[in-house]
Design goal:
alpha/beta, 37% helix, 6-stranded parallel sheet, 6 strands, globular, 6 helices, Rossmann fold
């Protein structure tokens, strides 16, 4: 089944990682691919300690797409393609595949949507796939079995607060 966590509210990655933790706690094999994120997030640090979780390597840091030059965007697209290809190679060897922020990678043009749909179409039937991110393309929404939308009502960022370690990353 395909799970999709989307919306402008906080909690998309948190939900995906909670589901991955639940799967790992049951002894299942989990592969986590993160897009548009660097390697310093708290969830990566925690999952590194679990033997049945595979984290696909990501760049140590990555800019927001809107702040990238054309050259940086091309480099990021190449890096995101490598991450997606690694996820596709590992899909048959796990019970859950998390594609965190894949919707943003697609909606910003870093990954063509047909590459993600091809991965979904080629997954083993028993595989649980978790997609997260804002602005999912209609093809991903159609393929999802679960669609959960996080809606922001209030967030400290709106008053100028910075992201906090352990809460937002």
């Amino acid at each position: 089944m395909v799970h999709l966590y989307t919306g402008d509210g906080k909690g998309k990655t948190t939900c995906a990682m909670g589901l991955a933790l639940r799967m790992a706690g049951r002894g299942k094999r989990v592969v986590i691919a993160q897009f548009l994120k660097g390697g310093g997030s708290g969830e990566r640090l925690a999952f590194e300690a679990l033997p049945n979780v595979t984290l696909i390597p990501v760049p140590e840091q990555i800019k927001f797409v809107f702040a990238m030059s054309g050259e940086e965007k091309a480099e990021a697209a190449a890096e995101m393609q490598k991450i997606l290809q690694a996820a596709a190679r590992l899909a048959a060897s796990c019970d859950m595949l998390v594609l965190d922020e894949i919707c943003g990678a697609v909606s910003t043009g870093l990954i063509p949507p047909e590459e993600v749909t091809a991965l979904l179409d080629g997954c083993p039937e028993a595989l649980e796939v978790v997609l997260t991110g804002r602005d999912p393309v209609p093809e991903l929404v159609r393929r999802a079995t679960y669609v959960t939308e996080m809606k922001k009502r209030k967030h400290p960022f709106d008053q100028g607060a910075a992201a906090r370690e352990g809460i937002e990353f």
